Amino acid sequence: MKKVLVLGAGLVTRPLVRYLLDQPDFRVTVASRTVSKAEALVAGHPSGTTLTLLADETDKLAGLISEHDLAVSLLPAPLHPVVADLCVKHRKHMVTTSYLSPAMKALDGPAHEAGVMILNEIGVDPGIDHMSAMRVIDDAKARGGRIVSFRSYCGGLPAPEANDNPFGYKFSWSPRAVCTAGKSSARFREDGKQVDVPGPDLFACVHPLHVEGIGQLEAYPNRDSLGYVDLYGLEGIDTMFRGTLRYPGWCETLKMIVDLGLLDETPVTYPAGTTYARFVGRFLKSPPSGDVRKSLAGQLRIDAASPILDRLEWLGLFSDETIAITGKETTPLDVLGSRMEQKMQYQPGERDMIALCHYFLAKFESGPDERITSTMIDYGQPGGDSSMARTVSLPAAIAVRLILTGGLMAPGVHIPVTKEIYGPVLDELAGLDIRCVEKTEPLGA
After folding, report:
1. Domain limits at 376?
2. In terms of DSSP H, where are the helices of 267-343?
3. Catalytic residue numbers?
4. How many domains does the chain have?
5. Distance, CA of 42 to CA of 60 (rounded, Å)
6. In this model, does residue 357 exceed pLDDT 90?
7. End-to-end distance of the chain based on CA atoms, in angstroms?
8. Same domain, 167 and 196
């Protein structure tokens, strides 16, 4: 009997839990701050157990980890090292879909010594993006080629028929996580030159991208692309870019939100009765003249009829409606995220979409050079799981099964860039109708 501890019961967790409950001889415990969410995931399955676990209950967490064979951490990223440290201490494996942090990387030696595997970045982005890219890169190398340009894009978006609000976006995962990701600095390489983008300028570094079957999108850089040059085995590559996809208009609007300061994480206590107009007015350099929209346009130096301000007005930020969080300490980011979540939800029957696109240029000493594309367009299931939930959690679930049944064992801290990991995971995902389609175009033949 294999025992799996799932930490967290958020928006993307259900497919992972159901997959693991369907495995023979697996028992699954879902621990969450809100036990009702965990109970909804398990839905009375005889192999499932639920319980309440708070973030500061470290002793209780340690006990749970010691009683299970593997822990899946779907908690906020800062908590992963705490979980990982306890897993190493109790010689238990761990899987997470989050980015590999320095604190997690530092556990590589101890994990090796303990004989446990800690697998990070096994979701969609990061996750499927790594695995599908490495499949193409390894194949090109095996045929004597060298990748000289790699551009990768991924975005979780409403399906075209559900793209019906001015932001062109709806939340299939944490609004706070979406917003904070937009504060990160980025760097990439373009034609041999390194480009560094400070966090406040992230949404100004944008370019259009036409995606077949979807149409025109816009892209901005995703964190540190250069950190993957060595991991992907692409030393000396001329162009290395990893980007995020959105519908047109998102970047210019988020740039104004950043410039205004609405993503600030400084705690503030808002008095009861604070309206959204007063909330926004606090970020104006001079008191609003009575028309917050007009005052904001002046401060941001944009036309008062700008579509950017139309979007903020649609969100209700100029209204006399009372903000949802008053009378206690919170942050501007929390106020904004709460409002976005309220206004930008998927309605029953609507589909979300994941668009993942890789573009490679491979040079060969013998034979023509090649332009290679790898594309995954995946849609949510109306009335069922979202595409975001499936593509984030099913790779992790498959990895859990492989680790616990002996199909995958590599002590230490890893991300899925080796064939031993990406091969079986991508193969099983294809059987679940989550697949990347690859096309090759010879150049100068």
Report:
1. 128-250+348-387+436-443
2. 276-281, 292-300, 307-315, 332-343
3. 125
4. 3
5. 21
6. yes
7. 56
8. yes
